[in-house]
Amino acid sequence: MDLRATRVEINIKNFRNNIKIFRDKIGSSCSLCLSVKGNAYGHGIIAMAHHAKDIVDFFAVATVNEGASLRESGINLPILVLSSHLESEIPTICNYGLSPLVSHCQFFDKYEYWANYYNINLALHIKVDTGMSRAGILPNDVLSSAKKIMAFKNIHIEGLCTHLACSDDREVGADFTEKQISLFENIIDEFKNNNINPKYIHAANSSAVMYYKNSHFNMVRFGLGAYGYSDDINIKPVMEFKTKITIIKNISKDSMVSYGCTWKANQDTTIGIAPVGYADGYMRSLSNKASVLIDGDFYNVIGRVCMDQIIIELPYGFNQLEHDVLLFGDNEKLNANTLSILANTISYEILTSISDRVPRIYKS
Question: Rounded CA gap, 353 and 281, in Å?
């Protein structure tokens, strides 16, 4: 089947180099857990996991189904399920040997039952809510929860973790992050004093790897940095979102462009139409704001972004049909960060919004 004009190109060399940079940053004594949730931040969960399986120690997913899909594709590394799940998903967790992050006590007996059924010893990671106020067991309840787990035969505590709420904000979030780390360290000490010694202690995300060495413990969970977005480190974006010009036309002065007539030509103008829109993940909020790159030059996206098309203002007389158009990629002025500012969001959303109908092409 022929590929669409609109596609994503994934640079595997950049991806693996990014991971190795993080590996060097944390040292050989610390395990590396790569997040591939959200379809590997839009890059393709199966392909990216297989390209990383020889240089990471763990994978992290958000859902049980994501973990199951990795197992079915042949991934044998440990897999953490970061988000909460339903009781009905516990058989799948046990069948595929996934490791859930535990945020409450209600499922301990169910884990025990299904772990026994599948003849496994299920590895649990206890999550502590140190201030995110989302998932996680509150500090005062963590020790008693751990002791409950230890009373069972077929489940065990493999990990202890927390989640840092604002480690990426060095100005506002530094004090709060240090308080979270300190509270987590108190929990670790409490566990040690009660002879509870999980194999893995983890708190750091990509930004904490950079800024808070005291959060590394003996494993870090990182995601965005592997895909090329993190401060103060020599990593490169992995994804390039591209399309082609499929229609070129000249319009007269005062012509209105696209839905709502939000853009008006102030002179005779050439426009190009490219088959990409918000159904592909190119956000409607970029209407009349974004630029694209063609042959080293930037051109404005004009009028409203449609479900399946955008309109680009071109030099008058431009006639190169099927010309490549960079929507964002490894470019200082045109990447997921710069687009996120225009769209009033974050780079995570820019990357993960690219839909399944956009083919991914993997390049070494």
Answer: 5
Decide if 37 is catalytic: yes
Is there a domain that residue 282 lies in?
A: yes
User: Is residue 215 within 8 Å of residue 164, measured between CB atoms?
Assistant: yes
pLDDT mean across residues, the chain: 96
Place of tokens 């940079």: 21
With beta carbons less than 8 A apart as the criterion, state whether 302 and 311 touch: yes
The arithmetic mean of pLDDT across residues 34-62, rounded, is: 98
- Separation in Å, CA 165 to CA 131, 134, 179, 226: 7, 10, 11, 19
pLDDT score recorded for residue 169: 82
CATH of the domain at 153: 3.20.20.10
Q: Do residue 209 and residue 292 come from a single domain? A: no
289 is catalytic: no
Give 301: exposed, middle or buried? Use CB within 10 Å, 0-12, 13-18, 19+.
buried
**DSSP 8-class letter at 182:** H
Same domain membership, residue 244 and residue 112: no
**pLDDT tens digits for range 150-195:** 999 999 999 999 999 999 887 778 999 999 999 999 999 999 999 9
Full domain range(s) for residue 138: 12-227
Distance CA 112, CA 156 (A): 10
Write the CB contacts of 28 (distance below 8 Å, at least 6 apart in sequence).
none
How many Å apart are CA 118 and CA 120, to the nearest integer? 6
CA 24 to chain centre: 21
Q: What is the pLDDT of residue 232?
A: 64
- Whether 4 is in a domain gets the answer no
Distance CA 131, CA 163 (A): 8
Over range 240-247, report the average pLDDT. 98
What is the predicted pLDDT for the residue at 2?
A: 63
Total domains present in the chain: 2
**Among the options 117, 192, 249, 259, which is catalytic?**
259
* pLDDT tens-place string over residues 272-320: 999 999 999 999 999 999 999 999 999 999 999 999 999 999 999 898 8
List, as one string, the DSSP characters of 318-340: ---TT-EEEEESS-TTSSHHHHH
37, 111, 229, 242: which one is catalytic?
37
The pLDDT of residue 99 is above 90:
yes
